[in-house]
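Quick one before lunch.
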Amino acid sequence: MNVQSLTTDILILGAGGAGMFAALHAKKANPDLDVTIAVKGLLGKCGCTRMVQGGYNVALSPQDSVERHFMDTIEGGGWLNDQDLAWLLVDTAPKRIRELETELGCFFDRNPDGTVHQKAFAGQTFDRTVHKGDLTGIEIINRLAEQVWRRNVRRLEDHRALDFIRSTDGSEIAATLMLDMRAGEPLLVRARAVLLATGGGPTMYRYHTPSGDKSCDGLAMALRAGMSLRDIEMVQFHPTGLLAGEGTRMTGTVLEEGLRGSGGYLTDAQGKRFMFEYDARGERATRDIVSRSIMDHIRKGHASPHGGVYIEMGHLGPDRVRREFKGMVERCQDCGFDLAAGRVEVIPTAHYMMGGVVFSADCSTELPRLYAAGEDTGGVHGANRLGGNGVANSTVFGGIAGDVMGSRTAPRGTLPDPDKTAIETAYSRVFSPFSRPRDDLSAMRERLYDIMWNDVGILRSADSLARARAALDSLARDIAECGVGESGHRYNLTWMDRLNLENLTLVSRAIAAAADFRRDSRGAHFREDFPHSSELDASTYTTVRLVDGKPSVAAQPVSFTRVRPGQSLLHQAAE
Ligand SMILES: Cc1cc2nc3c(=O)[nH]c(=O)nc-3n(C[C@H](O)[C@H](O)[C@H](O)COP(=O)(O)OP(=O)(O)OC[C@H]3O[C@@H](n4cnc5c(N)ncnc54)[C@H](O)[C@@H]3O)c2cc1C
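Model of the flavin-adenine dinucleotide complex:
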């Protein structure tokens, strides 16, 4: 085993909104720190922050308030949120959006009077979503990347994190084993503080929206390091993924929330609007309700030719639709659909993981020296995330993580020694597939897609979850035995695919176990055998960790630190 080593003060894993904000804030807190950002793709060109279409939720208008944004977030989250984290999100968001505009140079759309334009997003009581047309993420990530390039941050591009390595006494994190994907060689990065910001990403479902580089690596690393994941059963399905037919990567691509927010209709094979049969808010109900309603309607026999439903915008005026949703209209046109005047087939698509690593308001985790931010974390969104709260979450907490790591880390300070046996174990897991003949990875990926879509998807039950858990255990065993043959190590995509599948299957096992454990329906998690929410006052959140290699689930009571079910901060503010 020959492993090169690199030492840095702060190692940031992931270059989305969370990772890049953390790098900039750490440098701001202490410019003398040696900061390294490691990313599985190219900086500024990968991850989901770049893909943000709709926008960024923030209370800016005098008619809106942080309290109102908070209450929308808690009610949307089915009262499972960590309320202090949710408060930190909504309270810091105005500061962060100003930072994006005035320090980083983002241009967001404006009203004729010069104020920032804020649009409607489903599930919210106020139009508070800041945006740049429907390509908001590109604006944010390009400005962030420019600043990271300027600030003397070391970049390790095409480097994937493999495993956390604890210190020799096991009490804290000492290093991260990485893979230089271009050279196919391992690299041990020793750091005084590490940020996990690899952005979750439910790409284990047949239809999914996240970027192809995401395979729940950080969550799998956390599980293997003995850490707990919170609310990992809570997977959000975006109701309107493009259904472009078989054999195209465009299938699953999200058609953004703003379409429904601004008055888009969902219609079935018979051309009938059906959402009001399910919810008084119609198409503007929250994502979980719309996704479930679509699946139910499909099951009742109203499916479109490819097995979905339609979104229609033409009644709003094709010119307006082209103007307000330029990117969406062009993307649909590329696939042969007319969003502005016609109708486009859609299906719910796995979009976001509300669950993730248990973390605190200072972004620290249960493993000393390891911090976490963004979509890799759990607790902020509870059982369901509001559209527009995702990029707010990654930029708010990425910035906080950077501030905290920057102020707590001494340049060239003490550095724990990594446990050599742990390095050997991780190395052997990653490199052993070369000693075995090549297996059919596509067939294994199809198995994973089928299990997760059919049995751990939008509608779940004890039977489906028992089936899924057995099938996932068997798949995990097959993947552990699966080889990549004699192929070389350099930029070996088959090998990367195998590593991705291994991580996705491990996290899928955690999702299925937590979903089986939670015997009520809440937010994104719907059990057909327990279709109602249990008593909100007695709400619990789940935690999953690996015990003897198997997911073990526990329930913890939710602390209503700011508001109890049935109460509202808005009333308290008014009293
Ligand atoms: C199509 C789409 C549209 C969206 N629209 C909106 C919206 O309108 N509003 C909103 O609020 N949210 C939206 N979201 C959600 C939003 O993108 C995420 O909430 C947020 O950007 C996540 O930020 P992050 O920094 O945690 O992760 P990401 O931005 O995904 O970044 C993760 C980074 O980690 C890297 N990485 C992954 N694995 C490894 C590894 N093993 N080693 C090293 N690096 C690794 C990735 O390459 C990437 O650079 C959307 C998501 C999608 C997919």
